[in-house]
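#dry-run=false #mode=assembly
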Amino acid sequence: MSDNAYAITTYSLSKRFGRHKALDDVSARVPRGSIYGLMGPNGAGKTTFVRCLLNLINPTRGSAAVLGLDVVRDSVAVRQRVGHVAALQPLWEWMKVSEFADFMAGCYPRWNPEPVSAVLSRVGIDREARIQTLSRGQRALAALAVAIGHEPDVLLLDEALTGLDPIARREVLRNIIEAMHAEGRTVFITGQDIADMERICDHVGFLVKGRLLLESTLDELKARVKRIRVEHPADASPEIPAGALQVDRTARETIFTTRDFSPDLLTSLAGPNRRLEALDLSLEDIFVNLAQQNTEAAT
Amino acid sequence: MRSVFLKEWRQGRLIVIFGLVLAGLIPALWAVLSTVYVRDFRNQQNVDLFCGILYYIVPLFLAVVVGSGIFAAELERGTLPLLLALPFSRRAVWLGKLLAGLALTFSAIVLIFAPAVIARAPVLEEAQFWLLAPDLLLWTIILFCISFFWSTLCASIMGAVLATIILWALLAIAAWFAIGFLGARLLGTSVLLDAELWMLATCPALLTGSYVGFARGELLQSRRRWILPSATALAATLVICLALIGAIRWETRYDRSQIEHISWHASITGGGSAVSLLALAQPVRLKRDAGGWLGPGQLPTHRSQHLVLLHLDTREELLVRRGTGAASLSPDGTRAALLVKPPGITWGSRGRGIRRLEIWDLSQDRLLYRGYLQTTAPPSGPPGAPLPRRSALNAVEWSPDSRWLTVYNMFGDKHEFLVMDPQGRDLRRLATKSLLGGSWGWSRDSAVYYLDAGLRVVRHSPVQNANHLVCDPRDFPEFPKGTAPEAGTLTVSPDGRFLTVSLLVRESRSAREYRSGGDADGDQVVSFVLRADGSQPQLIYRNLLGRSSTISNPGFFWSPDGRHLYFLEPKLRNSVLHWSAQRAVVGRIPLPVSLTRGYIRLLPHSSGLLVWQERRAWTLDDREQLRPLQRDYLRWLDISSIVGFDAAGRAIVPRAEEVGHSLVSLDLATGETTRIYP
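#status=ok
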């Protein structure tokens, strides 16, 4: 795919805070029109990644482009076409919801109040209510609703679903994210709720300790990462391929996870008195496997 | 930027409302306090001062609060990332917030002062508000810039406020250092650098530092973000200060008056004066300070800020807008000599008391002379050319023919007595000493009698430019033995026939040597009256000091015809001493009270004397008859405030009214008053 096919591209993006590397050579590509989930444990660098995309902070090294625009040089143009909601984003509490929407409307060259009003009414938020009177979840919903008013081409949700109850979460997923996806816009989500990610994302990336371990479509990822179980005689354990994750060996059974599953792998493991089985992994299992491998490698 | 500006404006509108509340609150406070103290002038002054300080401090307080909250409030509430994620450049956000902060601050200030502007309060006509305004503006900008700078770096409003106070204090100390050390020692000049100017010069650097910190995009990393902007601010401050010092040195060399900016002292007094704005709350116009009314032969000072020439037909004319010290009207009424206090450079005690001499031709409204007096040689060049030495002129007096002036000048511990013409072309230094006192007087033929450095009586004729030694008091037969004069005063009778010489004499080795063989009489004050040619000296008063270190020279009052001399016994103040030229003896008239808080005053066109103390008064005629005076006006009259007497002999005197003071003419015999002004 050409660069135009990607809504977000980063090249060796690095950010260092003193001695701490928050991002380390991250080269990511988010296809246009996709719902991309960036997962990672706490402190992995997800929020730093988003802040670099918005040029809230400058990268130490590397570059990033959103919709083909350099995030540093063309930061204003980027922010005009990007919607952004952060986790538990504090708002100006002295404003009413309508004032907040009006203020945001004045900040963008184009503004469509209909989707904002639609979302607000659907989730039951009074436009004339002061923000300080809203609950934490309602504030997050209000921020989400207003973030789509300028009809962004890319919506960055930095753990924006945190704090939402299941009903509100479903409302956001169905009425905001899926609606944007249907219109061919790109949604970039970071978070740790892998079940939600698995349900809505078509692309995922794993960020651990500032490094992007893996990036792929969800289907491809599930097809590539499999759990292999081999039953064998006691004296004939199979040779485990390089790069295998989470290897468990017993006298008559060997189980491991592979990142590069293919039918050839099963052929190479086949032998007399052996029984092979390729097991599908959930996204959560894949995430845990990858995270553990990275932790073990680091120690 | 517009959206950011409007959002900031809406967010900070409480500040504006606060200003609006104060606009009503301070006048109300003033009105209440004034009602309590309406009859007591001194307390009224305190009320004015107190409310004036409020007027001055509140805008500065608002500037700090608004400036500190600009970014620190966003950081404190966590809304800064939301703001920065909006499609604006950092420059636009920074500028929008800066402009909004300034707009909020100055809107609040305008609201505080607006009522008086709309009501055209008298203080505006007198331009006192505009005296205050530039200074207030400067300090508001300075404090706003400091707090704005810290707001970019601090994560809490209180932190920014405290940092602002600390930095302000450091800058003030640094300004003092620049004045005291750099100015006086490194640059070899004693010019007092204006601290305000110095501090104002740091504002661009502070704003640059603030912008650098904001534009770097590292706002969310609080540990490191202050390093670069602070270093930028420091470097820029140093560069600006060096440039400023260089500029001032340059200016000092060529035109000192250009760098004399609004002074701290003027600000404080101006702040007090601004209280006159509170006229809005009162139905009666606030009038001028009674302490500074005009008098025939003398022009007034008005709170050391303005000089207004008031004609007795109530026509008034603003002569000098600000900074006026003492003043003197020439006897022919055509010219006025003013000791103008230049605005600015009064940081610290070294700058106080500096006066510039201005001489005005009132008939043509033309400035004849302006400048500092040259003390070593006559001034050259055009009027107003700056001269290297600062003077603290404190007295100026016209000759009877209005062609010459005497000037008493001080610089450091040196005092000098000069005569000059109104154009400043012909200036003569007649005497120089560490302490001279008011030791001169004009005779009717426009010759000046003065005590020279050796305290001898000298007559100087300005026209002939000649000095003539009249006498040496040490040769007087009644001069105390074994003593030497240390300081003295001299008066000339209105008819020019007699002089009084009053001397402080102290026992000394040189005195004993001077009058060998005599016994020392000890330290004392002696007063003589003598003829203008130095003959027939007569001792009229002697006050042995003993162990007392208090020196009290009597204040002499000559009757208009020059035949009677009165003075209050200075030590006990319980009697009036009267010397008559006809009898040449001194009579003592005991007073019914000791005038501890009273005065004596000559009545016009007669040899009578008015003795007054706290609502009681007596008249004293030349036959030494003391008669009590019982008039209603004694309830409000303070004779020390009598400006003078008009042609009909009526006293011109300020009178306290419900608010402020008016000028009235008072018939002392009948008690009838007529308002002159307003």
